[in-house]
Predict the 3D structure of the following.
Amino acid sequence: MSTVRKPITPKPARLREKVLVILQEQCKQCGLCIEFCPKKVLCFDTSKYNRKGYHPVTACDIDACVNCEFCERICPDMAIFLADKDEAKKAYDAGTMEENTIIPEFEEEVK
Ligand code: SF4
Ligand code: SF4
């Protein structure tokens, strides 16, 4: 067995192929997605209410998202999911998304 140490090459960061979409009007502020997100990406937007009177979920740290889909699987109201990036971008640019739908990754790009 060789005793020569080999250099460690770090793996490239995993590229996110999908984007997070949040239908804020459907959110009931149950907090499940926030609790189950392993990367602490999500939080409540306490600066606004949806039509149901809840503070909807938003992304506080979208750069940390790893596309694991836990939030999509756990949400009982299908208010949060991952979507194909190109398709989502088309809808975002065309303004054809439902009212109060946010795609945090694109909103960060606009800033
Ligand atoms: S896909 Fe995973 S990492 Fe990204 S917001 Fe949802 S639970 Fe968090
Ligand atoms: S799990 Fe769904 S309904 Fe509950 S806080 Fe998250 S987005 Fe809103």
The longest strand covers residues 18-23.
